[in-house]
Amino acid sequence: MHGARPFIYKGLHRALENVAEKFLNIYDTKIWRYKQKNLTLYTENESKRAFDR
């Protein structure tokens, strides 16, 4: 039983890493989408202003 403990910890550690990775990926895509949305809005406004000049 004593020898099995490191395996349990290793498994938990790996599971936590996977969860953290998934969470970060979701977070990154959300930020990226938000940035993309803001970028498109910004460029649209800029082009409108350019046409107005």
Which short descriptors sum up this protein?
mainly alpha; 53 residues; 0% strand
List the helices and strands and how they pair.
Layout: H1 5-52
Description:
This protein is mainly alpha-helical and 53 residues long. The chain has a domain at 25-52. Helix content is 91%, strand content 0%. The chain has one helix and no strands. The chain is rod-shaped and about 75 Å long. The chain starts with a helix and ends with a helix. The relative contact order is 0.07. The model has no long low-confidence stretch (mean pLDDT 84).
A few lines on this structure:
This protein is mainly α and 53 residues long. It contains one helix and no strands.
Q: Which term fits the overall shape?
A: rod-shaped
* Mean pLDDT reading: 84
> Gyration radius, to the nearest Å?
23 Å
Q: Uncertain runs with pLDDT below 50, 5 residues or more?
A: none
Number of strands: 0
User: What is the H/E order?
Assistant: H
Could you say which structural class the secondary elements and strand pairing correspond to?
mainly alpha
How is the main sheet built?
none
Cα(first) to Cα(last) distance is 78 Å
Residues in helix, %: over 70%
The total count of helices amounts to 1
In percent, how much strand structure appears in the residues?
Answer: under 5%
